[in-house]
Write a structure and sequence with these properties.
Chain lengths: ~425, ~280
């Protein structure tokens, strides 16, 4: 029976330098699949490679072909196998299926619940299909993978919660403002923290970015980088009039924005909402500003608290997701087993029908007086006897019960009826 | 015979509103869009049935069903349903259905429980001004009810964000901006309709009683309500009363409407009284 094997490295087993060496570009994946296809020992294969993982999923023709795969990786990536062998994980059968389901459901990701991985696996599968590298087994397995990943995403809260500070801040901004692309951001401080925060916002495409910094030169540089404009640090209060989100990360020891300043600014902006994100320690934004109506102040601790409770929540959802995956693995196992009995059932059917045919023809040759109708009737009867005879045994083989060893019964059947099953199907 | 048919259809309507409410509550907890879609479908069907019931009644009795409290409430519910469908279509704010379906179910329950006061044929209750008065006031107040709903949702969401403890509602409700915007649109629509409704009411009064204003308690309170909403809109436009303050005001405004609708007649009497007996 065909085995399902998965070997690979991920962010848990290999450092980034090694993962980089083992990663495949999309063209390299195609040529690698081509290479595997030529190999008579590999029946089906699929390869996916992201910045956090490189994994090969394959069905060997015979045996397990693990050494061959390691050699293949080493040859393809031009890296000595000793270098990565210890970082490699090798999963077989149910473990491989489970691992694949976990990866696709984003339970194995660095940031659990991140949504990209499913798309990446879908892409890998598309490539495998286009290059005819996958077959019956992998096709079925991949479709099951996609449906379980979808189910996990839909029915658990795994992808719901922001588990990084900047993501939590953006999620909040999205619950305050309906359309971030219409909102402007003021950066107080032009340090690395500010840059990081803005990079996340940029991916959400804000309307405009204004930078204010004590050293004006740095403000100008950062503003240029994000196509924004710089203002003098002293102008920060005026700038509040036209921005909606303020991200502060200066090294100041005192508040750079006070309650009074914001109150005045609020009047000028006709009480349109302001969202302050204070990632500086010590804090830049007077926390009392939060009491002003339509102003919301979140400092780094507030954001951390949200992230922590989200991580906790995610832990609970993970347990639920794992249950879904276990169920899916069991189901797939059942399907695999039902697949295993197909050749035996087929052979059994062939054997009985050929016996019936032979005997029927033999008898018929001595009964010349029968009309065509009679012949047909007798033929139908013999066929019915044949199929009724093997009906119960086949039913039993299809469902031998959960705790029995199917291969034993397949063996017994093959011996009882003296049928040969070719090993390669 | 026909009256019985109207009552039966109205009962079916109530059951549909309740089923829709259950759908919306399931949606609130599970966030599955199938629940929301089914609930919206149910509520639309309910509104259709509601309309049919009113038509049957009108044909059978030769006057519109707005002669006593039970009937007025029923019309109020119908207007609310129509307004909800309109704003749902405009904003696709799914969660507003939770508020609308609960309110609708509540009103319909009252409609069925309140005994039908005997209706005396009243010749003055007809004519263009009468019908425009009714339609404008009821749809206007329905829009203001939805503004109140949006206000409640706004306060729920705002509280979580302000106190830095995003809880049950954080994921389930849309952004503050959107809720404020929906509330504002409902408010301006409702206010405009109410203004026309009051104006047509005065004209109607003139044609029937020969004077625009007769110090009827309901007139006084209605104009009071109108002033409250006018003040709110003014503050919003000129003093930046948006967000939380505006949300609270829409809720207060709607409470005054409820009092004007029911309380005034019960406590103070007046020529609107028979409709709410």
């Amino acid at each position: 029976m065909s085995k399902i094997i998965l070997i690979g490295v991920n962010h848990k087993t290999a450092p980034v330098e090694l993962r980089e060496k083992l990663s495949f570009s999309s063209e390299e994946i195609i040529s690698a699949l081509e290479f595997l296809k030529q190999d008579k020992d590999i029946k089906e294969s699929l390869l996916f490679s992201t910045c956090n993982r490189t994994e090969i999923l394959y069905i060997p023709q015979t045996g397990e072909q693990i050494d061959k795969m390691i050699e293949f990786l080493s040859h393809q990536r031009k890296i000595d196998s000793a270098e990565f062998k210890s970082s490699l994980y090798i999963y077989k059968e149910d473990e491989a299926i489970r691992h694949l389901f976990m990866v696709a459901s984003s339970l194995d990701s660095m940031v659990v619940g991140e949504p990209q991985i499913l798309g990446q696996i879908k892409q890998a599968y598309r490539v495998a299909v286009e290059n005819n590298a996958s077959g019956v087994l992998l096709n079925r397995l991949m479709h099951k993978t996609f449906s379980i990943a979808k189910k996990v995403r839909k029915e658990t809260g795994i992808g719901d919660n922001a588990v990084s500070i900047s993501y939590a801040a953006i999620e909040l901004a999205n619950k305050i403002f309906s359309d971030l692309s219409q909102k402007s951001v003021l950066l107080l401080g032009a340090g690395e923290m500010a840059e990081l925060a803005v990079e996340h916002l940029i991916s959400n495409k804000v309307k405009n970015i204004v930078v204010a910094n004590r050293t004006f030169k740095n403000a100008v540089e950062l503003a240029q980088k994000f196509n924004g404009h710089a203002v003098k640090f002293e102008e920060r209060q005026d700038a509040l009039k036209d921005v909606d989100i303020i991200i502060s990360s200066t090294g100041a020891t005192e508040y750079v924005l006070t309650l009074d300043q914001v109150k005045q600014a609020m009047k000028k902006r006709r009480h349109n909402t302001l969202f302050f994100i204070d990632i500086a320690v010590p804090r830049d934004i007077d926390p009392k500003i939060n009491t002003v109506s339509n102003a919301y102040v979140y400092d780094i601790d507030d954001l951390k608290n949200i992230v922590e409770s989200n991580i906790e929540q995610r832990g609970k959802e993970t347990i639920k997701a794992q249950r879904f995956i276990e169920e899916a693995v069991l189901k797939f196992r059942k399907w695999l087993e039902s697949l295993a009995i197909v050749p035996t059932v087929k052979a059994l059917n062939n054997k009985i029908s050929s016996i019936v045919d032979i005997e029927f023809n033999k008898t018929l040759s001595n009964l010349k007086h029968l009309s065509q109708e009679d012949i047909e009737a007798i033929k139908r009867m013999t066929q019915a006897i044949a199929s009724r005879t093997i009906h119960d045994p086949i039913l039993f083989l299809r469902n031998t019960g959960d705790h029995r060893d199917d291969s034993l019964y397949l063996n017994v059947t093959q011996q009882l009826f003296n049928i040969d099953i070719p090993e390669k199907e | 015979m026909n009256l019985q048919a109207a009552d039966m259809v109205l009962q079916i309507t109530t059951v549909l509103y309740f089923t829709s409410m259950i759908g919306y509550l399931l949606f609130l907890f599970n966030q599955k869009s199938t629940y929301q879609r089914s609930a919206l479908y149910l509520i639309s069907t309910a509104i259709g049935f509601h309309f049919v019931s009113m038509v049957i009644y009108t044909i059978a009795t030769r006057h519109v069903p707005i002669q006593n409290l039970s009937q007025s409430l029923s019309v109020a519910a119908f207007s609310l349903g129509c307004m909800f469908l309109f704003f749902q279509y405009k904003f696709d704010l799914k969660i507003l259905g939770v508020f609308a379906s609960i309110l609708l179910s509540g009103i319909m329950l009252a409609v069925l429980l309140i005994p039908d006061a005997p209706v005396e044929k009243n010749a003055v209750l007809k004519g263009f001004w009468f019908y425009s008065h009714i339609i404008m006031v009821f749809t206007g107040e329905a829009a203001l009810a939805l503004a109140c709903g949006a206000g409640i949702l706004y306060l729920l969401q705002e509280k979580g964000i302000k106190t830095k403890s995003p809880g049950f509602f954080f994921k389930r409700l849309p952004s503050l901006d959107l809720l404020d915007n929906v509330g504002y649109t409902c408010l301006t629509t409702g206010f405009a309709l109410l203004t026309i409704g009051l104006a047509t009411g005065f004209i109607y009064a003139k044609t029937i009683w020969g004077r625009f204003w007769s110090w009827d308690p309901k007139e006084v309170f209605s104009v009071g309500t109108w002033v409250v909403y006018a003040a709110l809109l003014h503050l919003r436009l000129y003093s930046g009363w948006r967000g939380r303050k505006s949300a609270i005001m829409t809720i207060v405004g709607f409470l005054i409407i409820i009092f004007t609708f029911i309380g005034v007649n019960i406590l103070l009497g007046g020529h609107h009284q028979p409709f709410t007996k």
